[in-house]
Amino acid sequence: MGHCQQSGRDILDPHLGRYAARTAGMTASEIRALFAVASRPEVVSLAGGMPHLAALPLEALAAQAAQLIAEDGLTALQYASAHGLPQLREQICEVMALEGVTGHPDEVVVTVGSQMGLDLVARLFCDPGDVVLAEGPSYVGALGSFAAYQAEVVHVPVDDRGLVPEGLRAALRQARNAGRRVKLLYTIPNFHNPSGVTLAVERRAEVLEICRAYGVLVLEDNPYGLLGFDGRTYPALHSLDPENVVYLGSFSKTFAAGLRVGWVLAPHAVREKLVLAAESATLCPPTLNQMIVSRYLATQDWRGQITTLREVYRERRDAMLDALEEYLPGCGWTEPAGGFYVWVKVPEGVDTRAMLPRAVAARVAYASGTGFYTNGLGSRRMRLSYCYPTPERIREGVRRLASVLDSEPALAHASAGAGPQRAALRTLAPEAV
Amino acid sequence: MGHCQQSGRDILDPHLGRYAARTAGMTASEIRALFAVASRPEVVSLAGGMPHLAALPLEALAAQAAQLIAEDGLTALQYASAHGLPQLREQICEVMALEGVTGHPDEVVVTVGSQMGLDLVARLFCDPGDVVLAEGPSYVGALGSFAAYQAEVVHVPVDDRGLVPEGLRAALRQARNAGRRVKLLYTIPNFHNPSGVTLAVERRAEVLEICRAYGVLVLEDNPYGLLGFDGRTYPALHSLDPENVVYLGSFSKTFAAGLRVGWVLAPHAVREKLVLAAESATLCPPTLNQMIVSRYLATQDWRGQITTLREVYRERRDAMLDALEEYLPGCGWTEPAGGFYVWVKVPEGVDTRAMLPRAVAARVAYASGTGFYTNGLGSRRMRLSYCYPTPERIREGVRRLASVLDSEPALAHASAGAGPQRAALRTLAPEAV
Which of A23, A36, A108, B312 is within CB 3.0–4.6 Å of A19 for a Cys-Cys bond? Predict the structure, then answer.
């Protein structure tokens, strides 16, 4: 036969009629189809959020892990509670105190990365059809978890000072008028993923008051809070309203992502349900991993390590911003004061999702903006990560990106040489940042 | 005021109106309230399923973990794919081959213990109101996951040769007549938790045929399959019908539970959805843990380790059965040919749930039978685990249990000295085993 025929395996899924309705919201991220190509060494990946690990004291960590297994292996390799090891929960409270949080160890639940905390909170609170408010754009993994529990994410506008309180009020009014039940405000107040912006301190109380007034619980996701480039930290939302904020924390960005140790801090009654949900999800978090983190916090200069990471990331952020200034004068971007990401606005006519395969072919990868919205926005945005490549690679990646942009059909006859458009980002619009 | 007043925190949950409907099915297990007491060293716990770890080569494992971190730490401590490390997935296929399973590494998804696999399968397939069939009794953690996705578990009778095919047919007919949608048969064919029985080989094809005929997917949970006391393995259900069986495996019982490494083997289309669901659940399983398991399988005599475990557990099973024979002549019990558990039937009038606090006061703990049913049955059953205590402790625990039973009010005037009632277990009844 002359026409192309796919294998039956690709076309037919004999289980198709059996899946739960919630699977309709499960979709692969756009970068994934390109993953095999994008992860080749010759490609500069500005797409991922892989943290920098080279500064870790690997020899010391190796010795400690060996000691834990050799001397305490009957504990380290055994089941433990779903709540998490008591000593680690105490240390987590010390870590959170750096951002003003006063949590009790009993209110902490250790999770397999904070992604699991996110998923458990969605499981506890989201009925199908419930609304979750989130920054527009928002963290793609959160959008996935909310979709998995059939909640609808409604985006709230963001400007360069973070979530816009008036936009939050408007979204809540609109949902109320439409008879919708809003369960959560999901927010990343510090060094936001993907936009890079930070919620202004003077807005924090206002955001919390609005949520209180509308009876909406706040889910604060704070993996980057200690990675401010000037060493500054901001008061956690939890510190301002502990009874109405569930807090997600992580060691993935400040220590070691591959250990998968994160946590949730939640009011007592919520915490009890979280532990039950965690038992269903994984029985318990890995014991060895908890002990490794606990030993690291107890014996190593983890504050010094965070200072080192800040310096590494600041240097990379600077390399990214310098390269953007030099190579992408026709674009706009945010200027993150910490964290991993710059959010870039490309010229009119460019579609970052459509351009991605061409970028990968030109040996540079990014995360196209559409993945960070549930409403189809973001086609003129892209997230560039500076956390993993060296400054030289960042510069080279942005240079390649510029040549890809220059070759975009839509721009072939557009005028070049316009100045940076960061000012334009300050306006409030559906794709504000 | 004169009357007793509880703290507001205990009585009032300000978030009570906010939880998702699925949380209604989340309940703490009965043993948990007693956990703090039951885990005291003076209590003989026959309640838990903690595996025996003392035979593990801890020094070698310690050296390997150290080497992985020191020499390959930038990988071991970094994010990886939600699918699982390719090398480990290949090795998992070799492990499964011991029970006749021919899986492709691409069809394997590494999970944070097989509990996570169970939870993800429930997430993929169970809509609220769907029916899941499961042995009666069944694994409490599975009942929890199905409840978390609002599926209703309907129990299928079990006798000393496992799931009863005629009972399965009857349950399916009944569900069909009631207009209910049956999504899964969840089954533990080998050395069942909690009943200890094994699905007879001659029943396996029949069970699979019935499920095929009714369009029901089979979820085969096989954590104990390599722990048969005579070294015998049974053909996995997956080996007989790979397209209609999703298989759950685990290293928790044959290697190290605290690493939380398990897996799902699923037909290709299901596997793709599982990876997406796993990304929402935890982003990826811990990288270091996967590398530790992979290195262990590649370099250590893991088959010899399993042989050692079989001998340890057989000795403990024998100690348990001998003690039951000696101290509990008025009870009936199953005789497991592998695994961790004996299922005990107590005399009429005894309620194992009501008796549990008195047992703990007498320094012995067990899992009362009601926790393994969703329909209120099991009050005359208890699960005794012989996996963790030494033979001497097992004997002492059963002796204590006998004195607790003797003191039960309902038995104070019952006749003593009746012979063992194992024969009675062969009859088919709602609480058949």
Answer: A23
Range 82-141 of B in CB contact (< 8 A) with A: 112-113, 115-116, 119, 123-127, 130, 141
Q: Which amino acid is at B314?
A: R
| Chain A stretch 243-262, residues whose beta carbon is closer than 8 A to a beta carbon of chain B | 243, 252, 256-260
Q: CA B164 to CA B206: how far, in whole Å?
A: 10
Take residue A19 and report the two structure tokens written for it: 């899946």
pLDDT tens per residue across span B252-297: 999 999 999 999 999 999 999 999 999 999 999 999 999 999 999 9
Q: How many CB atoms lie within 10 A of CB B31?
A: 20
The answer to whether A67 contacts chain B (CB < 8 Å) is yes
Closest approach of B420 to chain A, Cα-based (Å): 34
Distance CA B49, CA B27 (A): 19
Q: In whole angstroms, what is the distance from residue A408 CA to residue A144 CA?
A: 30
Q: Phi and psi at residue A81, in whole multiples of 5°?
A: -80, 155
Instruction: Give the least confident one: A135-149, A195-209, B404-418.
Output: B404-418
Local confidence band at A37 (pLDDT 50, 70, 90 cut-offs): confident
Residue whose token pair is 């994010």: B79
Model-level ipTM above the cut of 0.90: yes
Angle at Cα A317 formed by Cα A229 and Cα A383, nearest 5°?
120
Largest CA distance in chain B: 70
Could you tell me how far CA B334 lies from the centroid of its own chain?
16
C-beta of residue A137 within 8 angstroms of C-beta of residue A292: no
Cβ atoms B340, B49 nearer than 8 A: yes
pLDDT of res. A427: 32
B70 contacts A58? CB cut-off 8 A:
yes
Residue A101 main-chain phi, psi, to 5 deg: -85, 130
Out of A29-43, A345-359, A368-382, B111-125, least confident range: A29-43
Q: How many CA atoms are closer than 13 Å to the CA of A171, on its beta-carbon side? A: 28
CB B229 within 8 A of CB B317: yes
What pTM, to 2 d.p., does this model score?
Answer: 0.93
Distance from CA of A85 to the nearest CA of B (A): 12
Q: In this complex, is the C-beta atom of A338 within 8 Å of any C-beta atom belonging to chain B? A: no
